[in-house]
Amino acid sequence: MQKHFDLVVIGSGPSGRRGAVQAAKLGKSVLVVEKGRRVGGVSVHTGTIPSKTIRETVLNLSGWRERGFYGRSYRVKQDISAGDLMGRLHKTLEHEVEVLEHQFHRNGVQWAHGTARFVEPHVIEIVGEDGECRRAEADFVLLACGTRPFRPDYVPFDGSIVLDGDEILDITQLPRSLTVIGAGVIGVEYATIFSALDVAVTLVEPRATFLDFIDKELMEEFVHELRDRNVGLRLGSAVKQIAVVNGRAQCRLENGRSVVSDMLLFAAGRVGAVEALDLPAAGLSADHRGRLTVDAQTMQTAQPHIYATGDVIGFPSLASTSMEQGRLATLHAFGHQPPSPPEFFPYGIYSVPEISVVGMSEEEVQRRGIAYETGIARFRETSRGHIMGLDSGMMKMLFSIKTRRLLGVHIIGEGATELIHIGQAVLNLRGTIDYFIQNTFNYPTLAEAYKIASLDAWNKLQAAAGPAARPVAEEPVVEGE
Ligand SMILES: Cc1cc2nc3c(=O)[nH]c(=O)nc-3n(C[C@H](O)[C@H](O)[C@H](O)COP(=O)(O)OP(=O)(O)OC[C@H]3O[C@@H](n4cnc5c(N)ncnc54)[C@H](O)[C@@H]3O)c2cc1C
Ligand SMILES: NC(=O)c1ccc[n+]([C@@H]2O[C@H](COP(=O)([O-])OP(=O)(O)OC[C@H]3O[C@@H](n4cnc5c(N)ncnc54)[C@H](O)[C@@H]3O)[C@@H](O)[C@H]2O)c1
């Protein structure tokens, strides 16, 4: 292995690999250090891709998407086992890793298997599994080391009954009942995925509300769906104790209630994976959750030649945004000034049903004192929805009364994470309600919901403006919407 590199990247998750390939495209020599046996990071091995693959498998094998048509008892496969879920998972991961390795290879990115730590601000030691040490010197360093599950001492993790979010991927048997602690994105995704498998799920969250960044009206819809399929919600009480009693997980809450289940998933957040790095040797330090502070524009840490990207810098902690951060960091390091990223990025929660949002929620619009109008479309009112047998799903759009500009799009239901990108484009291109009113959409599609929701808002805007303001021939008020 050569000794000096233009860039050394620590971690091969979304931000590390994007940063590495971008640097290679600029003709720079790049070394990626990864402590995992294969490249891909949390995203490929324990996070995004595994959870989404399991979700897809569950939806397919359970016949979830067809139940609107054939009834709640419809199943494609009667007895779904942990093996059924893991089979598809391993194939998908294998394919993902192959694509990444090939990407590194054809771009001339070198990668070393081992744990990286700073010796000096420009010198990194790589410790292999056998304890062998190598050193690499770098002009620039990209810290893309990600996170690991938060595992407080009071939780008796045992890898089979009480698990963290990484260990849930190694289960060999499906539980009949599951308690999920923490109603963050990970907790909610797994809770609803297991519930779609007919596992009796209880979701525990110390706060009285959850997923607070999602529009309240959408969350009301979501909570209604969860209750409708008997997902137990224990909100507003902290966890007092977790124990394994007679081979089952027992969770006692501060309010005196208890939940007992076959398995317990502790998903109360993640912490930066910085322990091994010896940050002080590079003149850096992390906060109590292992997060590093960076300049939001350039991704530089307190040491200008050391950049940090991805989950280790905290919010929004998404694979999607991490990739972009990695690329921006590398461009900055090598003297390119990319334009600032657009104001709004989409957020996709792959729960069952899925949720996706872009722009401002109704609560945020109110906080900012913007005069607004909303439009709603329900998927069951679209022809595509009828064809697909959808009995739930909705889209909510917010528009400024003054400028007519789109302020936010909020979707719950089938295809939400794909549909959102139409709204994202219009939002970031500063489009108005007129885009949706004037354009024709493919029919029958779920995207037609954009048209329906916009017409709903448009009708309200016209009604509020009064008869004098109503245009006559070209833009008739649409009846029945
Ligand atoms: C269960 C789950 C589901 C998720 N679902 C989604 C989703 O649907 N959509 C989405 O956008 N995001 C999702 N995320 C978030 C997404 O996975 C992260 O935002 C993303 O992985 C962060 O990328 P990263 O660049 O920080 O690196 P990571 O993917 O966190 O990878 C970091 C890598 O660095 C390595 N490393 C750490 N320390 C060292 C060291 N000292 N030496 C060498 N290597 C080291 C680690 O082994 C790891 O491979 C999910 C996360 C989880 C946990
Ligand atoms: N679809 C996606 O984009 C996706 C999916 C999964 C994860 N992620 C990312 O991964 C990151 C981590 O997700 P997460 O859900 O683990 O963390 P989180 O921080 O989003 O949520 C943790 C939840 O646990 C609760 N909690 C905190 N301490 C607790 C305790 N001691 N006992 C019980 N509950 C407690 C919190 O109130 C919160 O609701 C997120 O930032 C998210 O962006 C994204």
UniProtKB/TrEMBL annotation:
The keyword Transport does not apply. It comes from the Bacteria. Keywords: Cytoplasm, FAD, Flavoprotein, NAD, NADP, Oxidoreductase. Its cofactor is FAD. It is an enzyme of class 1 (oxidoreductase). InterPro entries: Class-I_Pyr_Nuc-Dis_Oxidored, FAD/NAD-bd_sf, FAD/NAD-binding_dom, FAD/NAD-linked_Rdtase_dimer_sf, Pyr_nuc-diS_OxRdtase, Pyr_nucl-diS_OxRdtase_dimer. NCBIfam families: PRK05249.1. Conversion of NADPH, generated by peripheral catabolic pathways, to NADH, which can enter the respiratory chain for energy generation. Belongs to the class-I pyridine nucleotide-disulfide oxidoreductase family. This is Soluble pyridine nucleotide transhydrogenase. It comes from Sphingomonas natans.
